[in-house]
Amino acid sequence: MTIIQDILKTMDYGPAPESPAIVDDWLAEHADGFGHFIGGAFTGPSALFEVTNPATGKVIAKVSQGRAEDVDAAVKAARSAQPGWAALSGHERARYLYAIARHVQQHSRFLAVLETIDNGKPIRESRDIDIPLVVRHFYHHAGWAEILEDEFPDARPHGVCGQVIPWNFPLLMLAWKVAPALAAGNTVVLKPAEYTPLTALAFAGIAHEIGLPKGVLNIVTGDGETGAAVTGHKDVNKVAFTGSTQVGKIIRRQTAGSGKGLTLELGGKSPFIVFADADLDAAVEGVVDSIWFNQGEVCCAGSRILVAEAVAERFEQLLRRRLATLIAGDPLEKSTDVGAVVHPVQLERIRSLVEQGVAEGAVLHQGEAPGGCFYPPTLVTNVQPASILATEEIFGPVVTLTTFRTPEDAVSLANNTRYGLAASIWSENINLAIDIAAQVRAGVTWVNCANLFDAGAGFGGYRESGFGREGGREGMRAYLAEPRPKSRSSESDLPALKPYPSDPVAGGTIDRTAKLYIGGKQARPDSGYVYPIAGAKGNSGLASLGNRKDIRNAVEAACKAAGWGAQTGHNRAQVLYYVAENLAARSAEFVDRLISFGQTKKAAESEVETSIRRIFWYAAQADKFDGAVHQTKSSHVTLAMYEPLGVIGIACPIRMPLLGFVSLILPALAMGNRVVAVPSQTHPLAATDLYQVLDTSDIPGGVVNIVTGERETLTKTLANHDAVDAMWYFGTKDGGRKVEEASAGNLKQTWVEDGAARDWLGADGQGRTFLHHATQVKNIWIPYGE
Ligand code: NDP
């Protein structure tokens, strides 16, 4: 018999295993295999594949491999259920979501054990983190359904949502996707990951149990091919994906030109920054919660520790000491800290990446782990910033440690990645921590904390970590279709421009040609060519024929003008008011210019007048369109900051050459972006005249860059350019598709519209939609209260 003295010798916990009996019974009942959940019922099992418990290697279930026909049947069920579901009042939908939340709560032990057996994560985490967050998500979104009409007037759902989720938080990722989709009035076809489909199937049972109308939720199991059938289905209106950046890019290309809504929550390589004045013990626990949580299979895991040189040795010592105390082993054991890796394939990936790192000179410090599908918690030192371990998402319990000297170093190391999902910052100097939070390019930033989540705060990335948010108001907006402009039709293809030799030119010389506007200066086009602009009476002037090189120069100038985004909204507003006043002072010239293109006096006056009003409107918005403070936890608040995207490429419509240009560049500028704009191809001179106005209005050089020429050619260079953060394109349907396809390169955000006929003079030409497109939300978590 163990006596107290024995226990005191080691202070070890006794075993406290969670019983799997409840789940074993359920699995035994389904020993013949699971079908898909389509139209409110399970299909018969077919084309079965095995699902294993990674901790034991044992097969625990057989699940159907979804074929294209299954996906089609699910989409049809979702389509036919959607109008009825959307026609319910928000209150009625809310009641279903409340019922789901309550039933998940009632089955929480079952779901936690099932998740642990299917995924390998410690029961402590599935019980205390995953399932409670699932419940919270459904309650929160029940609330959104209730108040949807008040909070999002005129909003309408997308229709059918195709959702594909990964294996690291199987039920939680389902909740993040299903709850807002249903709250908004969409119906769903969801594909869980091949390794972890079981809690989604159990959830389908809950949907059935609460009487969710048939077809509102459909679950099709299978592998990547099934996923591709969901995301590529022609009758799916919105695609939401969480998974690797590689597959995210495939989906971006696959959905290009389809008009489907798209949100991508992708990989990360998030920095964990420890300043010299940080509470080092707390920061060590932060690392535990960051990278040794969920076996490091966390997209936002702080997988790169950047520590101030002055405390690096001490911090490493503390961390290694803590590492040695972590218990890796049976996920069902309540004292386990690190469970099993999801699958031998993933284990192999972790091993192989670590081996490559070691070959590059990295030094490993590892804890203990049993044999089988387990990987020991690992700290890696002597890692160069270019090492594979510092650049690749490992998705395992492996963290690198690198030192920095100054806060500037820390920021530059933190941002030295193609990703931008999260960052964790540790310092007792709150000024410093918040200053760094502002400079780190990441969608979620935790100050003196790590891996905190709440349904009330948005989650999602910058750069190649994807776009769109899940959770919070912005997450809700992602499940609502944007108000469609009342009138829109595609522009027809434009003929290629015929360059004239620059010298001599009939009707003028190159010196009288409108030049490009790059970095605050007029610039001759690299090609030396110009092209004639048709007017009411023959040619009304010559414009420069810009090319790839001009676009590259313009992007470079825009990149250098980053200070614009750091200015206060008030300062930007002052500059923009000045632009409006200066345009007003010269309005007669602009009216004449538009008349010279063949417009009537009345139409020209109306276009100029509306342009001036529009500039005032966006100037007024510059210090008003802002974020929110979420009360996410009793001890934290979350600041949802609207940040500029960076450099936006803008391809303007042909019509309304002044107003179309102003309507697009102004919201971008008001929110702190820099732009490289391609004005109306046929009548760019109204836009190039504006650079005299910009010059006299204190717009810093490089904030607005204007390159005239062939819209499609110039757009292609912009859409492919890695330093361009977003691309807006208002032209042909085919042009829009090409922009979306090319944007997959660096996953730039796109806004494409075959919108030549958007009514730029009316309400469709201005509004908050434009401002939303010009911003992304960074959620900064800071300690607040007890
Ligand atoms: P994937 O991105 O391949 O998988 C995510 C989901 O997408 C799964 O349901 C998968 O199905 C499905 N899928 C795969 N290919 C396609 C496709 N062409 N079209 C539509 N859906 C598709 O991630 P993996 O599971 O393969 O993991 C690979 C690596 O990705 C990991 O090692 C990790 O580094 C990273 N990863 C990152 C995640 C994140 O949230 N950041 C999450 C998961 C993985 P199936 O499961 O059947 O393959």
Description:
The chain is of the alpha/beta class. It is built from 27 helices and 31 strands. The chain has a ten-stranded mixed β-sheet, with helices on both faces. Strands 8-7-6-9-10-18 form a six-stranded mixed β-sheet, with helices on both faces. The longest helix is centred in the first third of the chain and has 29 residues, at about 125-150. The model is unreliable at about 500-510 (pLDDT under 50). It binds NADPH dihydro-nicotinamide-adenine-dinucleotide phosphate. NADPH dihydro-nicotinamide-adenine-dinucleotide phosphate binds near residues 242 and 346.
Key terms:
globular; alpha/beta; 27 helices; binds NADPH dihydro-nicotinamide-adenine-dinucleotide phosphate; 31 strands; six-stranded mixed beta sheet; 786 residues; single chain; 42% helix
Short description:
The chain is 42% helix and 19% strand.
- Helix/strand class: alpha/beta
Distance between the termini: 43 Å
Unreliably modeled segments? 502-511
* Apparent shape: globular
Number of helices: 27
Largest sheet: 10 strands, mixed
The helicity comes to 40-55%
Bound molecules: NADPH dihydro-nicotinamide-adenine-dinucleotide phosphate
**Beta-strand content:** 15-25%
Based on CA atoms alone, the radius of gyration comes out at 28 Å
Mean pLDDT: 95
Number of strands: 31
Q: What spatial order of strands do you see in the largest sheet? A: 13-14-15-12-11-16-17-31-25-24
EC number: 1.2.1.3
Domain Aldehyde dehydrogenase: 49-480, 544-756
Region (Disordered): 482-502
InterPro entries: Ald_DH/histidinol_DH, Ald_DH_C, Ald_DH_CS_GLU, Ald_DH_N, Aldehyde_DH, Aldehyde_DH_dom
